[in-house]
Amino acid sequence: MKAIFLSDVHLKDPEGADYERLILFFDRLRGRGKGGSGETSDRAFVLDRLVIAGDFFDFWFGKDEAIYPGFRQIIDRMAALKGEGVRISLCEGNHDFFLSDYFSRKLGFDVHPEWAEFNLDGLRVLASHGDTVDTGDHSYLALRRFLRNPLTHGIEQRLPRFLIWRLARFWSKMSREACGDSREKMRGAMERFAAGKIREGYDAVILGHCHEPLLRQMSSDGRETTFVTLGDWTTHGSYLLFDDGRFTLQRFPPRG
């Protein structure tokens, strides 16, 4: 089993260097099925599963079949991977939610509003964006409930497209400001959360949101366990690779 996890790409400008780098990264990914190369080389990496742990888009609002045109290129890459047999899972983040209407119903991706559980070569793995881990951040959690309310979504679906994009930018900024706590505090809350889940029997807990890449391996009841925060694409170009039963944090492009 080979899997890749990434989060906090925050796509918004198709002309930006981060977007171009992501396209180059996706161009190297292949599935094992029809259309996939099935071989690993310097230019290709074969995988079975791709997990995006939230905030892949800096905002996401789809309306029927209409999506932001700037996202089309990367979505086509993802759909091609799905066609090659890669199972794709999206965990919703604090910037991209209500994803099922498009990605699940139209493209057949697995969409998880919050928690996603996987079995990777016998390891019980929990993945999430992680923005609800700090249960004491009441102002952020209240904003999150408002933005994800079905009534809010219903109103948004009735608005003109140009106004949707303006509101999306505004709500994205609000969400970013509401998550303004220090990364140290956030990471501490995530570590406590992960420790609790590992005591429940999970072998690995993988979270996004804090934008700092961290991989910590621990022993629990005689077994090796793993806690990961995925970092982000803009600053670190980081992603998590699961290969041959091991987790490793990687960067793209690789740094010597």
Task: Sum up the structure in keywords.
Purple Acid Phosphatase, chain A, domain 2; about 260 residues; single chain; alpha/beta; five-stranded mixed sheet; globular; about 30% helix
Helix content: 25-40%
What would you report as the Rg, rounded to the nearest angstrom? 18 Å
**Strands ordered across the widest β-sheet:** 6-5-4-1-12-13
Distance between the termini: 26 Å
Which structural class is indicated by helix and strand composition? alpha/beta
CATH topology: Purple Acid Phosphatase, chain A, domain 2
Estimate the strand proportion: 25-35%
Poorly predicted regions are none
The CATH architecture is 4-Layer Sandwich
Largest beta-sheet details: 6 strands, mixed
**What is the number of helical segments per DSSP (H or I, 4+ residues)?**
7
Number of domains: 1
Number-wise, the strands total 13
Please describe what this structure looks like.
The chain has 256 residues and is α/β, with parallel strands linked by helices. The protein has a single domain (2-251), classed as Purple Acid Phosphatase, chain A, domain 2, CATH 3.60.21. Helix content is 32%, strand content 25%. It contains 7 helices and 13 strands. It has helices at residues 17-27, 72-83, 100-104, 138-147, 150-157, 161-178, 183-199, and strands at residues 2-6, 29-30, 45-46, 49-52, 87-91, 110-112, 116-120, 123-128, 204-207, 213-220, 223-230, 238-243, 246-251. The strands form 3 sheets. Strands 6-5-4-1-12-13 form a 6-stranded mixed sheet. Strands 7-8-9-11-10 form a 5-stranded mixed sheet, with helices on one face. It has a two-stranded parallel sheet with strand order 2-3. Helix 2 links the parallel strand 4 (49-52) and strand 5. The chain is globular, with a radius of gyration of 18 Å. The model has no long low-confidence stretch (mean pLDDT 85).
